[in-house]
Amino acid sequence: MGRDDKILELFKKEKDSYLSGEEISHLLGISRQALWKHIEKLRDAGYVIEAVPHLGYKLRHVPDKMFVSEIKWNLNTKILGRDIRYYETVGSTNNVAYELAAEGAREGTLVIANEQTKGKGRLGRSWVSPEEGGVYLSLILRPDILPNEVPKITLVAAVSAVKAIRQFTGLEALVKWPNDILISDRKAGGILTELKGELDKVNFVVLGMGINVNTPRELLPKSATSIKAESKSSAELSRVELVKIFLKTLEDEYAGFSKNGFPPVREALKSYSCTLGRQVSVTKSGKERFCGKAVDIDKNGGLVVELADGQEETFLSGDVTLIR
Ligand code: BT5
Fold first, then answer.
1. Ligand 1 centroid vs 37 CA: distance in angstroms?
2. First to last CA, the chain
3. Pocket residue to mutate for ligand 1, from 127, 176, 250, most atoms within 8 A of Cβ
4. Which of 138, 144, 191, 206 is most exposed by smallest CB count within 10 Å?
5. Distance 236 CA to ligand 1 centre (A)
6. Residue 189 has pLDDT above 90, yes or no
7. pLDDT digit string (tens) for 71-120?
8. 178 preceded by cis ω (within 30°)?
């Protein structure tokens, strides 16, 4: 935790009283002048910090910044987000998390950014990640599963994202198999799961998620939306709160998956799916195209599609377009 984060933590712990400059400097082991510089930096970031002579400082307003101390404040997870790396701007949080994981970072390490300049989608596609508006995060996981089961982690995350958005906003978010989060049939979020492993062993998984929270629609691709655009209120939503709810939800779902396996995830996925029962077109590896009706999610997380000739085809990966 950096000094700014420590100062914020002190303010929040003592939110009803003033903290003297002397006290804070002493607790942090820094000079009054250095403290003043930190206070100015926090003010520049949008924090309103009142300074009253003879009384000291008091925090009056907290902006929606995804600083480490903001996410950690009252976060009730045990593993996810206990170690957090925050970036104002980064290429891709997935790439940073991948490097950290390769260096041995522990399970649950969270990499989060205010903006991505090279946000990644699947298959070399890009993820539009403008500053302030969205959540761009990656988590390092070290699941005890085989590499061919890793796509199930994407589904665990998709269920968690939908549950978190519903809890946070009341909006009817749904999963478009396998990795899209839709609200009113428009894409509001996406998941990118990457792994390092050998044939029969997973070294680590990087679970990346992007959610458009306050992002103005004009900055997004045509078919996309944001939570704010779909909400009735014009108020800005707190990305920090959403992240905390998501981390807790994912931690519970991930623990459930590790303990009970895929069946409960499959049931949840089916109930939150906007794919089942619809006519779809599925593209495999960006090439072959299949059209039919999505009829089931099988026990491995695959999408079962009934083709025009009545045959069923199961897809373990692919891109789905909803036709009607
Ligand atoms: C995804 O890929 O949906 C996975 C997106 C994962 C993004 C997160 S952000 C944090 C972490 N770090 C990263 O670098 N990535 C992850 P895919 O299913 O391939 O969808 C990509 C397509 O979604 C694009 O080709 C666009 O059509 C569309 N798209 C791009 N940006 C979008 C956005 N912000 N909102 C909605 N749709 C978008």
1. 38
2. 49
3. 127
4. 144
5. 22
6. yes
7. 998 999 999 999 999 999 999 999 999 999 999 999 999 999 999 999 99
8. yes
Q: What is the pLDDT of residue 233?
A: 82
Ligand 1 site, residue 127, Cβ cutoff 6 A: yes
Is the pLDDT assigned to residue 232 strictly greater than 90? no
List of residues 6+ apart from 286 with CB closer than 8 A: 123, 319
Q: Is the pTM of this model over 0.90?
A: yes
Query: From the CA of 128, how far away is ligand 1's center (Å)?
Result: 7
What is the predicted pLDDT for the residue at 69?
Answer: 87
pLDDT (mean) for 260-277 = 97
Half-sphere exposure of 226 (CA within 13 A, CB side): 25
Average pLDDT score over the chain = 95
Q: Is 90 in the pocket of ligand 1 (CB under 6 A)?
A: no
Give which of 56, 254, 25 is closest to 156, Cα–Cα: 254
Query: Where on the phi/psi map is residue 237: left (φ > 0), alpha (ψ -120 to 50), or beta?
Result: beta
Residue 243 is encoded by which pair of tokens? 């992240």
Whether the pLDDT of residue 179 is over 90: the answer is yes
